[in-house]
Prior knowledge:
Helix 1 links the parallel strand 1 and strand 2. The protein contains eleven helices and eleven strands. The strands form three sheets. A seven-stranded parallel sheet has the order 3-2-1-4-5-6-10, sandwiched between helices. A two-stranded parallel ribbon has the order 7-9. Helix content is 41%, strand content 15%.
Amino acid sequence: MKILVTGGAGFIGSNFIHYWLAKYPADSIVNLDLLTYAGHLSSLSDIENDPRYSFIQGDITDAVTVEKAITGVDLIVHFAAESHVDRSILDPLVFVRTNVLGTQILLEAARKHSVRFHHVGTDEVFGALPLESDLKFTESTPYDPRSPYSASKAASDHLVRAYFHTFGLPITITNCSNNFGPFQDPEKFISRMITNLLTGQKVKVYGDGKYVRDWLFVEDHCRAIDEVVHRGQVGETYLVGGLTEDFNNLEITRKVLQIMGKDDSEIEFVTDRPGHDRRYAVDWSKIQRELGWEPTKDFDACLKATVDWYQAHEDWWKPLKAQSEAIYK
Ligand code: NAD
Ligand code: DAU
């Protein structure tokens, strides 16, 4: 199989390329990535000369580039997006451009060339859940996006479904919760926290810290996409989430502090994110039931492995750190 991966120089895309080439040695991958501030070829330096891998620097909103990249491809796995909620508050336009227009241009190329399309979506499209509740998002939860980022991702999901219903394009969608792990840009919560602590800065906790995310190790997400691509039902959506038992941001912070041998004096409460969603929680029973997927059981071990990775890979994240901190100034 020849796969077009969009956004393969980003966090999850680069993990996915590593995962896929290791598991399916006969497949080849074309990575189409614009290399925005979030795209790092250093995440793929180990495979840059692999004959099964090729890279095209280009924009998914450019139909000519997409037409070139899609030649001979059997499957598109679409990660490319503007992905950071805080940046979508500072500059929403590029989110609409890449996440909505870019997805439509890819869908149109996939339709023209009859290429199977897997769309990487987010649980944020469902809005926010109350803090003290057992409620979880399911595949039938109504869409209720609340940030420019999640609104643009919701629009992209709708377009993907529209291409299935209207044109019969073979699509699948996964809506996944918060990922963490190697190669995450140091601007996101866990990666920022670890790299702050490694550079003598405090952990910045937004608001009261009682916000809940459903954390998932990135390799689990790659495995879920693998299952859906191979065995998922065309036209269907699958929710993907973790096993973090509703730990809030403060509790996650304390886990990382403990792993790194530090204490609460490293915590700084800072101004909250506008429109901050209180809680996300994902019911992933459909993908478990239909495809046998489950998240890795040991969250603490995955967190420790992530801390270890950042400790061992300063050469990867140090050059990115100043740029990622600049958006908070
Ligand atoms: P990321 O920001 O780390 O990477 C995005 C990649 O897309 C970068 O390499 C960037 O250069 C590329 N890109 C951006 N605009 C582009 C354009 N116009 N043309 C081509 N390439 C472009 O994002 P991520 O965290 O790896 O997320 C990947 C996907 O997964 C996104 O669609 C995101 O919405 C979704 N998702 C992320 C998470 C998470 O926790 N990170 C959870 C669920 C879903
Ligand atoms: O739920 C899936 C989504 O998870 C993905 O679709 C997004 O692409 C991804 O960025 C992520 O969005 P979040 O906004 O949840 O992730 P972020 O890492 O920015 O923030 C996680 C939580 O931590 C959130 O409650 C805000 C808080 N936070 C974040 C940062 C960067 C802090 O308290 N301090 C911080 O420094």
